[in-house]
Amino acid sequence: MPPSPRPLGVAPAPASYSLNLFPRRRCLPARHAVSMAASHAHDAHFLRRAADVADRSAGLASPHPNFGCVIARPQLETDDVEAWVVGEGYLYSQGTPCAELLAAEEAGEHARGATAYLNLEPDDCYGNSTAVSSLVQAGVTRVVVGLRHPLKHLRGKAIQLLRHQGIQVDVVGEDLQSKLFKEALGSCLIVNAPLLYRAAFHVPFSVLKYAMTADGKIAASTGHASWVSGKASRGRVFELRGRSDAIIVGGNTVRLDNPRLTARHVKGGHVPVRIVMSQSFNLPEEANLWNVHDAYTIVATQRGARRDLQKKLAMKGVEVVEFEMLNPRDVMSYCYDRGYLSVLWECGGTLAASAISARVIHKVYAFFAPKIIGGVNAPTPVGELGMKQMTQAIDLIDVSYEQVDRDMLMSGFLQPIPDLSPVIPSVDEIPSVDPEVSPYETNIISFYKTWDTFGAFANFSPHPISLPDENGDCFTWPTVEHYYQAHKFVSVDNPQARDIVQEIKQARSPEEAARIGRTRQRELPELVRSDWESTKIDVMYKAIKCKFSTHPHLTEMLLSTAGSVLVEASPHDLFWGGGREGEGLNYLGRLLMQLRSEILGTVQTTGKIEEST
Q1: Is pTM, for the whole model, over 0.85?
Q2: Residue 174 catalytic?
Q3: Into which CATH architecture does domain 15-193 fall?
């Protein structure tokens, strides 16, 4: 019998965590030990469920972690622990309600006296402690946490806040030290492996995927590769793409296969970016990847390569990024700066070997098809690595196998999941502000993604604003990004423009709103208001002014930056952001500093902070 299928994001506990994970405990009376074992079994069960719920975030929440929350309370009338669950939730996308709030809302009054299970310690990216306050207000009396947050400026903060509110917090491996938790801990590690790799190595979590025949070929000698694997395996590849922020191929793949690299079954508003690495820029002028209607495309190349083709692709909406020396390590550093959490490599053997040698590949998914094609010159999945003896071979870690129709899927890690626990201080040692990452030690404060220390300044932060809509009626916009994107098409006398505004207003996340607004602006420039270029700064300022006046804790955060330069650290937006090397205009940072000056002027004049109008 083949092994039972398992979702791509779920795997057994890594072997590196299977030994010496928990210290020995003193012996307990038999009755107490049985009771504790049963309690631990329930805790472990619900913690695994929280990790499973969190896995629904994969590919959607980036660059945030995958958060899941399960609220449960014992039901005396039933032994079915599944019936104990009264609420659960997961983070749908950055800028949307947190998992804890969604679970608490679903549980309602049943949350009082219950236990909340979190695969990962909540973060507080927005300065309002929504996750903590949701659990406190719901009446939860105990919280079980799988992992502390791996980012230093967030680690331990939520745990400390919960304990200060009188809630019992138990952390696996610290307060809960039973062997029953090994599998649950493994699930928590697996579901947020991308975040752990990113935090440890400062590159996105990278997965190499390939399909090969039984004799180890990924294509025929002619280069023809459609199709090596079966339809079911290709469906799993679409799932992998849907869980990734970006998909990388080399120039050879574009020339030979002309791929589309779409997820095909896109979840919500998430669409992975497609990245082509080509040192010589020897690429065709026409290719499926140059159609950016459904997905954005970036071409990474060496500085100065084929300027004429660069201009032609730019006119199609393809972004070209130049590097002094094109290599996988620098491209991954660039992806890290863009906030990508997970990257899927679907490249040929030469680029795969280069990426493995650069140590930026962390996991492999290999599909084996039961067919033989032969060919001395037929390409293989990985090119030359310089190894001369079998003893030099790289051993995969935590290997798993799964039959997918007629194919076999093997997956394993090239590098173990980083164990960040040794650097985690005890709760008594955690200061309210980590001196190692204090932003007040520098005159430049950068922000970009909403999980940054000052991520609340970003337009994607989940801070609603109430401003007039296209009809002049007061409307609560979910985020500044929703308001800004919609106003590209406001006041345009065209039914299609009005439909676009409605589409943006209903977008479930700021990422989705931004994708709709940017795509429609590029495809239908005639529907963009004629004064947009001269008006967009005023539109943005009106929105952020409303945001900070509506949420006083944001004003306090903004005033705390007095004397510092604020920079929106987008490496690609040269108007609102600062660019990769400071070449951007940084208009968002400028507007925030202007607002800060206005508020400070009001404070100095009146002695108190007044609401902005």
Answers
A1: no
A2: no
A3: 3-Layer(aba) Sandwich (3.40)
